[in-house]
Each structure stands twice: as C-alpha cells, then as structure tokens.
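User: Could you check the structure of this?
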Amino acid sequence: MINIISAILIGIGLFFFFGGALGIIRFPDFYSRLHPAGKLDTAGLLFTMFGLAVYIIQDFTLGSVLTALKILLIAVFVFITSPTATHAIIDAGFVAGLEPWTKKDDEEKE
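Assistant: Sure, the predicted structure tokens are below.
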C-alpha cells in the first residue's frame, strides 16, 4: 500500500515537472517563462520528495526515519528558496530593461 501511495505522489510530481517544462518551452517571454519554472518545479519537487520520503520510511528504522527527515528538510528548503530565487531573477530582468511581452508585439511581427 505504501508503494502505491509513494508511486502516486512521485507520478504527481513528475506531472508538475512536465507541466513546468512545457510552460518554459511554450510561453513567449522571459517573465511568463519564469512563472512555471518557479511554481510548477517547486510543486513537482515537493510531491516527488514527499513520495520518496514515504517510500523510505516504510521500514521504520532509525536510519530510514532520519533519511526521510532529511528529504523533507530538502523539500522545505527548496520550497522557501525557489520562489525567492525566481523573484530575484525577475527583478534582475526588470533592472536590465527586459520588456514584458504584449499581444501587440506578435501583431507587429506579422
């Protein structure tokens, strides 16, 4: 049963990773590409790491509990730092003068 739960959580995480990769490829500009990079990669990592922690803790020994705790601490660290890093990258792009995409930009190219 625990194997199924961990496989489902890892599958959900991979779905979020795939959606983030697709968003990075499909979105038109720098700012909109960072949105899936920040949101979906964080969610994908959270689900994947939680699934791995559930899988490891099924033995319930001291070593497996400590390993699962380390995995969860990594997930918490990334959950805090990823949005902060995304904000810093967006701020650097704004300071560098990158203009946001508008629909008018596509109409001018045609």
